[in-house]
Design a protein that fits this description.
Elements (H helix, E strand, L loop, with lengths): L13 E5 L6 E2 L2 E2 L3 H15 L3 E5 L16 H11 L3 E4 L19 E4 L6 H4 L3 H8 L4 E4 L21 E3 L1 H14 L6 E5 L8 H7 L5 E4 L1 H10 L14 H14 L2 E3 L3 E5 L7 E4 L8 E5 L1 H13 L2 E5 L12 H15 L4 E5 L1 H10 L7 E3 L3 H8 L4 H6 L1
Parallel strand pairs: 1-4, 1-7, 4-6, 5-6, 7-8, 9-10, 9-15, 10-11, 15-16, 16-17
Antiparallel strand pairs: 2-3, 12-13, 12-14
């Protein structure tokens, strides 16, 4: 994988830059700019090198049709403010843009083509569509790690038609994930949550031989609590998961990796209710497990203190209700504490976990926070990502 930062001559070159600017929108208002903030270094680097930039990105799932609510217009305006640089949104149909001379009539150094998913050919990974886009530039740069698990035209096929490089943010994502899967500093701990254990089984199986501790929290932990003979009431769980839990426990013994799940929990009868601390054998049929208890928090924070590397994917509880955010907050605080003392290397990923950190305004206090969802998880699974392979 070649990084654009090592390319010697970018002066006056037209860069086709694939970004993931799929930010949450409330009408035309962006409610979270994290994904925009993360790609600013790549844009500033290319501007400094006197390159011209044509951005490709998408918002939402328009399914190959023009959906006005999913225009990149709000993103274009936000980029302009953040870069203090004029940015133009190009609304013309891509097929009417025949070659790169089309852009000579604009003075802006940064142009954004309208939502690439307005074209059905994008998600079909259409080779002719990819070649048409490639003809608009001199160099292709992928800085959209979070889309790189998709075999789409602007991620995969396009690299066949132009010299192709990785962007600065993609480099950071891959380096951070390599650091916790290949260049491991032990002891290494994974804190993993989410509601469905079946979606994470391959990740856990891939990490078990490499990690010292895997801590199961969130909805996934309920499957473990129930497997060991406890009533979980009306807590979220995945049906028919006993076979998966048994497989994880068996493999963990074989690989000498500790599996940790909650020993005490906070429950309520509904998501908006108050919190009650319970032992695992005290949960009633009309109660839901919504956070970990102090005994479990203490066990997890002790493990964090003994770890050199940590991966965190998934909150410990239903943090949207402050009554059930304590477990996640205590985990975050202990990781930050060890980060400050340079005792740990921390990587955090997953939409809910990033939302939690944004709510607490502590994103910058971790070594690396990934906004990628599917790509982050598939990389941890050991899968080859089409967007990364295309750059190799």
């Amino acid at each position: 994988m070649r990084s654009i930062i090592k390319e010697k001559n970018l002066n006056n070159k037209t860069i086709i830059l694939r970004l993931d600017l799929n930010v949450p929108l409330d009408g035309k208002k962006i409610t979270d700019t994290t994904r925009i903030d993360k790609i600013l270094p790549t844009l500033n680097f290319l501007l400094k090198e006197k390159a011209r930039i044509i951005i490709l990105s998408h918002v939402g799932r328009p399914k190959g049709k023009i959906v006005e609510e999913l225009s990149l217009e709000p993103i274009s305006k936000t980029l302009q403010k953040k870069l203090n640089e004029s940015v133009r949104l190009i609304n013309e149909n891509i097929y009417k843009i025949k070659n790169k001379e089309f852009f000579n009539k604009y003075y802006e150094k940064i142009l954004i083509l309208e939502n690439i998913r307005f074209y059905p050919e994008e998600e079909k990974n259409d080779s002719n569509f990819a070649k048409h886009i490639a003809d608009l530039g001199d160099i292709y740069v992928n800085d959209a790690f979070s889309c790189s698990h998709r075999s789409h035209a602007s991620i995969h096929q396009i690299s066949k038609f132009l010299p192709s490089f990785s962007g600065l943010q993609l480099d950071l994502e891959v380096n951070a994930l390599n650091k916790i899967t290949s260049e491991i500093t032990k002891p290494i701990t994974c804190i993993i949550g989410g509601s469905k254990i079946s979606t994470k089984i391959n990740i856990i199986k891939n990490l078990l031989p490499k990690f010292d501790n895997i801590i199961i929290v969130g909805g996934m932990a309920n499957n473990f609590i129930e497997y060991f003979g406890n009533n979980i009431g009306k807590s979220i769980k995945e049906n028919n998961s006993n076979k998966i839990v048994k497989e994880i426990i068996s493999l963990s013994k074989k690989e000498a990796c500790n599996i940790i799940y909650p020993e005490d929990v906070h429950v309520s009868k509904n998501f908006n209710g108050s919190s009650e601390l319970k032992k695992l054998d005290q949960i009633l049929s009309d109660e839901m497990i919504l956070d970990i208890g102090p005994k479990t928090i203490n066990k997890i924070t002790n493990i964090i203190d003994k770890s050199k590397t940590i991966l965190w994917n998934g909150p410990a509880g239903y943090f949207e209700n402050p009554n059930f955010a304590t477990g996640s907050i205590k985990i975050a605080e202990r990781i930050i504490e060890n980060n400050k003392a340079n005792k740990i290397f921390s990587v955090v990923g997953g939409g809910d976990t990033v939302s939690l950190l944004n709510n607490l305004n502590i994103v910058s206090k971790f070594n690396f926070v990934s906004t990628a969802g599917g790509a982050f998880l598939e990389y941890l699974e050991g899968k080859k990502l089409p967007g990364i392979n295309a750059l190799n």
